[in-house]
């Protein structure tokens, strides 16, 4: 971890709950853009290894894993995909698969009947319309069974290097808590955040925000008092503890010690 700290990134410490300009409706558009980009820079330091948490080695595997990730965790998907990917290696393999065989493998991910049907439909659509390859265009990807904009952006961003904002449940919760937007519709959120963050940063910004959502800014009781974005967040203390000790207990994940060290280094300055 570098010596960059909370304090050096956000010297204008708005720490009292509710005191942030965005919390009282006095933030300008320019101020919001600057804050959004500062948030991205802070998260770049805190999560230098942010990445898609689904395991894959090619676009088809990522597409399949992302379809399976609906209504479950990436950890659970990663538990079933080794067996699935070993048995089904191409779109044609999925197209020719028996539903029962796929269901048996993916059962732990939930909604396994619908997901198996989607994977077989996906294989058929890829063979019928795209020569067995995963297309790169957003408008093509969203025509595939089980594939919405979120999945399409995950695949484009992580398998093809095309910038995209992945508006999942964590992303929606965080950008609203951070008051980067008040929109609730995923497409409207994508549009609003796309204006604030540089296009080349879209994919990584999504990963960083989702990392923070999984480790610090939980849906219930976020760890505000141990959050690297505390000074830039108008929701500091609204739903979670502001005291460092109880907040630190709520920080999770392999980066936990680094996150706490980063925040504590800022406090000491
Ligand atoms: S944990 Fe608290 S301070 Fe951090 S982003 Fe979430 S609401 Fe804001």
UniProtKB/TrEMBL annotation:
<dbReference type="GO" id="GO:0051539">
    <property type="term" value="F:4 iron, 4 sulfur cluster binding"/>
</dbReference>
<protein>
    <recommendedName>
        <fullName>Endonuclease III</fullName>
        <ecNumber>4.2.99.18</ecNumber>
    </recommendedName>
</protein>
<feature type="binding site">
    <location>
        <position position="217"/>
    </location>
    <ligand>
        <name>[4Fe-4S] cluster</name>
    </ligand>
</feature>
<feature type="binding site">
    <location>
        <position position="227"/>
    </location>
    <ligand>
        <name>[4Fe-4S] cluster</name>
    </ligand>
</feature>
<dbReference type="GO" id="GO:0006285">
    <property type="term" value="P:base-excision repair, AP site formation"/>
</dbReference>
<dbReference type="Pfam" id="PF10576">
    <property type="entry name" value="EndIII_4Fe-2S"/>
</dbReference>
<keyword id="KW-0479">Metal-binding</keyword>
<dbReference type="InterPro" id="IPR011257">
    <property type="entry name" value="DNA_glycosylase"/>
</dbReference>
<comment type="similarity">
    <text>Belongs to the Nth/MutY family.</text>
</comment>
<keyword id="KW-0540">Nuclease</keyword>
<dbReference type="InterPro" id="IPR005759">
    <property type="entry name" value="Nth"/>
</dbReference>
<dbReference type="InterPro" id="IPR003265">
    <property type="entry name" value="HhH-GPD_domain"/>
</dbReference>
<dbReference type="InterPro" id="IPR023170">
    <property type="entry name" value="HhH_base_excis_C"/>
</dbReference>
<comment type="function">
    <text>DNA repair enzyme that has both DNA N-glycosylase activity and AP-lyase activity. The DNA N-glycosylase activity releases various damaged pyrimidines from DNA by cleaving the N-glycosidic bond, leaving an AP (apurinic/apyrimidinic) site. The AP-lyase activity cleaves the phosphodiester bond 3' to the AP site by a beta-elimination, leaving a 3'-terminal unsaturated sugar and a product with a terminal 5'-phosphate.</text>
</comment>
<keyword id="KW-0378">Hydrolase</keyword>
<feature type="binding site">
    <location>
        <position position="233"/>
    </location>
    <ligand>
        <name>[4Fe-4S] cluster</name>
    </ligand>
</feature>
<keyword id="KW-0411">Iron-sulfur</keyword>
<dbReference type="GO" id="GO:0003677">
    <property type="term" value="F:DNA binding"/>
</dbReference>
<dbReference type="InterPro" id="IPR003651">
    <property type="entry name" value="Endonuclease3_FeS-loop_motif"/>
</dbReference>
<keyword id="KW-0326">Glycosidase</keyword>
<dbReference type="InterPro" id="IPR000445">
    <property type="entry name" value="HhH_motif"/>
</dbReference>
<dbReference type="GO" id="GO:0046872">
    <property type="term" value="F:metal ion binding"/>
</dbReference>
<feature type="compositionally biased region" description="Polar residues">
    <location>
        <begin position="1"/>
        <end position="11"/>
    </location>
</feature>
<keyword id="KW-0456">Lyase</keyword>
<keyword id="KW-0238">DNA-binding</keyword>
<dbReference type="GO" id="GO:0019104">
    <property type="term" value="F:DNA N-glycosylase activity"/>
</dbReference>
<keyword id="KW-0004">4Fe-4S</keyword>
<keyword id="KW-0234">DNA repair</keyword>
<keyword id="KW-0408">Iron</keyword>
<dbReference type="GO" id="GO:0140078">
    <property type="term" value="F:class I DNA-(apurinic or apyrimidinic site) endonuclease activity"/>
</dbReference>
<dbReference type="Pfam" id="PF00633">
    <property type="entry name" value="HHH"/>
</dbReference>
<feature type="region of interest" description="Disordered">
    <location>
        <begin position="1"/>
        <end position="35"/>
    </location>
</feature>
<dbReference type="Pfam" id="PF00730">
    <property type="entry name" value="HhH-GPD"/>
</dbReference>
<feature type="binding site">
    <location>
        <position position="224"/>
    </location>
    <ligand>
        <name>[4Fe-4S] cluster</name>
    </ligand>
</feature>
<keyword id="KW-0255">Endonuclease</keyword>
<keyword id="KW-0227">DNA damage</keyword>
């Amino acid at each position: 971890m570098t010596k960059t700290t909370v304090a050096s990134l956000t010297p204008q410490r708005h720490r009292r709950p509710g005191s942030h300009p965005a919390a009282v409706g006095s933030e300008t558009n320019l101020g919001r853009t600057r804050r959004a980009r500062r948030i991205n820079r802070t998260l770049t330091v805190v999560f230098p290894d942010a990445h898609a948490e689904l395991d894959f080695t090619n676009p088809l595997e990522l597409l399949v894993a992302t379809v399976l990730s609906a209504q479950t965790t990436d950890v659970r998907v990663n538990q079933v995909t080794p067996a699935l990917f070993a048995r089904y290696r191409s779109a044609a393999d999925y197209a020719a698969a028996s539903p029962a065989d796929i269901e048996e493998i993916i059962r732990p991910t939930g909604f396994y009947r619908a997901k198996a049907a989607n994977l077989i439909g996906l294989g058929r659509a890829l063979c019928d319309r795209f020569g067995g390859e995963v297309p790169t265009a957003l408008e093509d990807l969203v025509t595939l069974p089980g594939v919405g904009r979120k999945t399409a952006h995950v695949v484009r961003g992580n398998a093809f290097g095309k910038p995209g904002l992945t508006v999942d449940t964590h992303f929606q919760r965080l950008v609203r808590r951070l008051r980067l937007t008040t929109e609730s519709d995923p497409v409207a959120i994508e549009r609003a955040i796309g204006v604030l963050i540089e296009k080349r940063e879209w994919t990584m910004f999504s990963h960083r925000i989702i990392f923070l959502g999984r480790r610090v800014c939980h849906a219930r009781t976020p760890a505000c008092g141990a959050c690297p974005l505390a000074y830039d967040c108008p929701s500091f203390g609204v739903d979670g503890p502001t005291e460092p000790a109880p907040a630190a207990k709520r920080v999770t994940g392999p980066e936990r010690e680094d996150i706490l060290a980063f925040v504590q280094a800022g406090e000491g300055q």
